[in-house]
UniProtKB/TrEMBL annotation:
Domain ABC transporter: 24-258
Homology family: Belongs to the ABC transporter superfamily.
Protein name: General L-amino acid transport system ATP-binding protein
Record's keyword terms, sorted: ATP-binding, Hydrolase, Nucleotide-binding, Transport
CDD domains, A to Z: ABC_HisP_GlnQ
The keyword Nucleotide-binding appears for this protein: yes
Enzyme class per UniProt: hydrolase
Domain of life, source organism: Bacteria
Source species: Neoroseomonas alkaliterrae
Amino acid sequence: MSAALETTEGHIASAMRTDAPPAIVLDKVNKWFGALHVLRDVDLQVATGERVVVCGPSGSGKSTMIRCINRLETHQEGRIIVDGIELSDDLRALDAIRREVGMVFQSFNLFPHLTVLENCTLAPIWVRKMPKKEAEELAMEYLTRVKIPEQAKKYPGQLSGGQQQRVAIARALCMKPKIMLFDEPTSALDPEMIKEVLDTMVMLAATGMTMIVVTHEMGFARQVADRVVFMDQGEVVEVGTPDQVFNDPKTDRLKLFLSQIL
Ligand code: ADP
Ligand code: MG
């Protein structure tokens, strides 16, 4: 399968592979925080190379769902299988998942006392046991891809929000993940910085990366998503192409949500 190419409509052609096992499977996943039932029988399969955008009202369980995929949260019922490995209490399985799944948060989560370069080399050196020089070369390669190699020696606090988020993306990529999860990566950014981060994610999509992106950026969803998932009150309510979900909503819940964000 060749890498994805940009088509004339501006849509990034999918690198989705239906001949390979799914990258992620959620099978009747349920999760509670105490008495609060936050994920209700969530079923979702993401193919290798597929890009899925998740949207839905605040509190609908979007963050919880993607945090369960790399086990930042644990689910209580159902199965989650990532790259063929079922999530369980087995620590080796957890280690394997954490190496393969990169995550980018709304709030950047960079280490403030480390330089940009050190932020990017920390996990490759300590988790992947990569020699320092090799880790630094790799980090510079990714910082160049996200277009900020000149910021390598600075500290996060010296960068704009958009630059910090691009560092966070580069840092995740330095672990050479097979899957990238994004949780509202542009919601904390000033409008003028949103585009530079979305452009970085479009670039990543064009490399064929398997991605789940929680976002309400419709333009991004239309350009990149193979499927859009709409969640409400812990349930996956509708799933379809961007066109189906945004232009032809079936449920009142999705119609209401779209009327509020459009
Ligand atoms: P979303 O990302 O769609 O806004 P979340 O997954 O963050 O939704 O939250 C789903 C629900 O779970 C919300 O009602 C939220 O208040 C609750 N919740 C999230 N995290 C916790 C937690 N650590 N402890 C208790 N309740 C939580
Ligand atoms: Mg959230």
